[in-house]
Design goal:
The chain has 529 residues and is an alpha/beta fold. Helix content is 45%, strand content 18%. Among the domains are: 70 residues, no CATH class; 105 residues, no CATH class; 189 residues, TIM Barrel. The protein is built from 17 helices and 22 strands. Strand 13 and strand 14 form a beta hairpin. Helix 5 packs across helix 6. The protein is elongated and about 130 Å long.
Length: 529
């Protein structure tokens, strides 16, 4: 029997209301259950504050039910098993380890951070984070502190291995200076991009090596006539050898040596500094290597540092002027100072790392970083006028527990100066260093080991003890890292006072290996007093 339309309409309305009411009840029940679960989740995570929130992972490993010591063990295990990050260039693989970038395993800090995840911020932020973690969408990446200085040192190391200076066109000095060798492009590491790739990928390295960001470098355009003028000049400049003498030993650059050392560089145009012109120069690297060989002979006689600075000036003055004269280079030999070379360690197997010629804003901080990472204290002999230019670096040297010594105001060869001038060199530097040191500086190293009666009397007047050295690896002479490490390690002995410099890249690069090797041989490290 068909119901009247009015009744049917009424019944449909009732049914719709019933369905709507059921849906509403279902929604309310769902909301209530959701809120209950949310409160339960929040309550659980609040009550279990000594463990990570439910569902949280570290590198996809669930850590929810581990207490702080358990989380720290996981962090330490991941740190110990850090993979190497690989870079690729020109078919060669460069591997970067945690040690290379000075990774600092701050497991305590990372554990504390993990325990706070999802428990900070406002209520909404906590609810969202905890739900995402509970559903498996929150995985904390394992990270640690990477040393910026060590990373920069690594970049410089890679730069040394792959970089090539762009070479302007130049005469063929060795064979026929009338012929021209064409310009050659250079290449260099894009350091900024490399450091970004390092930070982004080190703790989660991709399966395949990352291409190193290397870019080409170019020289300016130069005319053939400009190059031919240099060829003519070179033939005049290498007609006769160049000689210097130090401690009775003669160093000579033959005409063939000069041809081998000759190179061409770009220099600002004196008339228009925005442009560059070509200039003749001797290769600094090759010249330093030759002078290093000569220095070994001189130092065997003098027990003092070879005066490489004055030697280069003497060589270049003869080279550019065309006038040849056997110039005598002053030597540090004078009074018998053997007693202040090696230190008395009382039978201990101790060694003294000392660094001259600082501070500076480039290599000196890198050396400080290495020493800090290795927990080693050293002695730094600082130059007064350089200290004024790099006060922050000098202050950091003292703050980090290293000993500071006087290395004169201008790094002059003191025996060539009057007694009053020597006193000024020492006293002015004392005035600068004493403020940084917080107490009078009491040790002094004369540049090049230059000592005479006036130097001795002035240092005694100021209460300065002269400290020389007995191991000189000549890090200024452009050795390779391997060679510098070998020179230091093979000459080391108990009480050795090792002369290094804080203004050379190779020293910063070799220092970690020097320390590790000497440690493995049972040496401990002390500062001079």
């Amino acid at each position: 029997m068909k119901l009247p339309v009015k009744i049917q309409t009424t019944l449909e309305k009732i049914q719709n209301r019933t369905r709507a009411s059921r849906r509403l009840r279902l929604i309310l029940i769902s909301v209530a259950i959701f809120l209950f679960l949310e409160n339960l989740l929040l309550a659980y995570n609040n009550l279990q504050a000594k463990t990570p929130i439910l569902g949280l992972k570290i590198d996809n490993q669930i850590i929810s039910f581990h207490t702080a010591p358990g989380v720290e063990r996981i962090v330490n295990k991941k740190f110990a098993s850090l993979p190497t990050l690989k870079f690729l260039y020109n078919g060669q693989i460069f591997q970067v380890s945690a040690k290379d970038v000075g990774v600092n395993n701050n497991s305590n800090l990372l554990t504390a951070k993990i325990l706070t995840l999802g428990r900070t911020g406002n209520l909404w932020q906590r609810v969202v984070y905890q739900n995402l973690a509970f559903l498996g969408f929150k995985s904390q990446k394992f990270t640690a502190d990477i040393s910026e200085r060590q990373s920069a040192l690594l970049a410089l190391d890679l730069q040394t291995k792959i970089a090539r200076e762009a070479q302007p066109p130049m005469p063929d000095f060795k064979n026929d200076s009338t012929k021209i060798i064409p310009a050659a492009d250079g290449k260099k590491l894009n350091t900024a991009k490399f450091l970004i790739l390092l930070r982004e990928n080190f703790f989660n390295p991709p399966p395949n090596p990352i291409p190193l960001p290397v870019e080409k470098t170019f020289t300016a355009a130069h005319s053939e006539e400009e190059v031919r003028v240099l060829g003519t000049q070179s033939r005049e400049l290498v007609q006769s050898p160049i000689s210097i003498t130090s401690s009775g030993q003669i160093f000579t650059l033959t005409t063939d040596d000069l041809k081998t050392l000759l190179t061409v560089v770009e220099r600002p145009n004196p008339q228009n500094p925005q442009n560059v012109v070509l200039a003749l120069r001797l290769s600094d690297t090759k010249l330093n290597q030759k002078l290093g060989e000569f220095a070994t002979k001189v130092e065997a006689i003098t027990n003092a540092e070879f005066n490489d600075h004055d030697a280069r000036i003497a060589i270049y003055s003869q080279f550019y002027s065309g006038k040849r004269k056997n110039i005598v280079i002053p030597t540090g030999k004078g009074l018998a100072y053997q007693k202040v070379l090696g230190e008395n360690t009382g039978g201990e197997k101790s060694i003294y790392l000392t660094f001259d010629d600082g501070p500076n804003d480039i290599y000196h901080p890198l050396i400080l970083d290495v020493l800090k990472a290795k927990n080693i204290k050293a002695t730094f002999f600082l130059v007064g006028n350089l200290t004024q230019k790099s006060l922050n670096v000098a202050q950091r040297t003292k703050t980090e527990g290293h000993a500071i010594g006087n290395h004169t105001l201008t790094h002059s060869f003191l025996p060539n100066l009057s007694r009053d001038a020597i006193l000024k060199e020492l006293q002015s530097t004392e005035n600068i260093l004493n403020i940084i040191n917080g107490a009078p500086v009491t040790i002094f190293r004369p540049p090049y080991g230059g000592i005479n009666t006036s130097v001795q009397r002035n240092s005694q007047q100021l209460g300065l003890k002269i400290k020389l050295w007995d191991v000189d690896p000549k890090d200024w002479s452009e050795p390779t890292v391997d060679e510098l490490v070998r020179r230091v390690v093979t000459s080391a002995h108990p009480g050795a006072n090792i002369l290094l410099h804080s203004n050379h890249m190779v020293t910063a690069r070799a220092l970690p290996r020097i320390i590790e090797t000497l440690k493995s041989q049972g040496y401990s490290f002390k500062t001079l007093e």
